[in-house]
Amino acid sequence: MTRAVIEAHGLTKKFGEVTAVQDLSLEVGEGEVLGFLGPNGAGKTTTIRLLAGIIAPTSGYAKVNGQRTDVEVERLHQVIGLLTEAPGFYDRLSAQRNLEFFAGFYPDLDIATQVEKYLKAMGLWERRKERVGTWSRGMKQKLAVARALLHRPAILFMDEPTAGLDPVAAAALREDIATLATREGVTVFLTTHNLAEAENLCAQVGVIRRGKLIAV
Ligand code: ATP
Asked: How far from each other are the two terminal CA atoms of the chain, in whole angstroms?
């Protein structure tokens, strides 16, 4: 394996009585795509939130790009991109304004250049002036991918990126993810319910059930 850029060591998260993630350890090498598979409620989203420094573990720890995810979260967020299950946008703003707004959170980013680059990369440039509220789920998902990539993250976390997309849009997005990993060396950690997707796209597949990693 190349240098590990995502490491989990005995990662555990409890919500009251519920153990959402239990003693999870894994590594993902630089430029690899890891698929995280499991039934509803298995702990996939919780794992992503732990690795992205959104929530702190009950015990254990994770390192992303060599940094602990429970300290220096600000610095962590400069190097990761996060695509959540339900990406929120401002419905009354155009696609372009939405991206400009979110790009503003990153210091030293050439906002105009990056927004144009990723609107074009996701095939949304021609429609950049349209209000996001009028868009289909698939188009919003493309915009969400553009938003996750704006600041050129080295590591991308994607929670069910193709859920709710039609087969053509899902296939196109899978291709984009594969290109990011192979051409730009981006490390991708994605969750999915789709076995074929995991098989096609991922160098490693982790299977989680009731909070426990049962196979890699
Ligand atoms: P899905 O495929 O349905 O998205 P998942 O594998 O992503 O499921 P999680 O959302 O990580 O599963 O949830 C794992 C368990 O932790 C579930 O039992 C869930 O109810 C519980 N859980 C998750 N977040 C919280 C929270 N903030 N408070 C309490 N319980 C939670």
From this structure: 14
CA dist 159 and 89 (Å) reads 17
* Cα-based distances in Å from 26 to 70, 141, 164, 210: 17, 28, 28, 17
Q: Kindly list the strands in the beta sheet with 212-215, ordered across the sheet, starting from the edge strand earlier in the chain.
A: 80-83, 155-159, 187-192, 33-37, 204-209, 212-215
35 close to 201: Cβ distance less than 8 angstroms: yes
Quick one: CA dihedral 77, 83, 85, 90, positive or negative?
Answer: positive
Quickly state the pLDDT bin for 1 (edges 50, 70, 90): low
- Residues 115, 100: Cα–Cα separation, whole Å: 7
Nearest CA to ligand 1 atom 14: 43
**pLDDT beyond 90 at 61:** yes
pTM: 0.91
Cβ burial of 33 (10 Å; 0-12, 13-18, 19+) is buried
Q: How far is CA 133 from CA 127, 145, 168, in A?
A: 13, 17, 22
Q: Is the CB of 22 under 6 A from ligand 1?
A: no
Helical H segments across the chain, by residue range: 44-51, 73-79, 95-103, 111-121, 137-149, 167-184, 195-201
CA distance 108 to 132: 26
For ligand 1, whether the C-beta of 35 sits within 6 Å is: no
Note whether 95 and 52 are within 8 A (CB).
no
Mean pLDDT for the chain overall = 91
Q: Is 51 in the pocket of ligand 1 (CB under 6 A)?
A: no
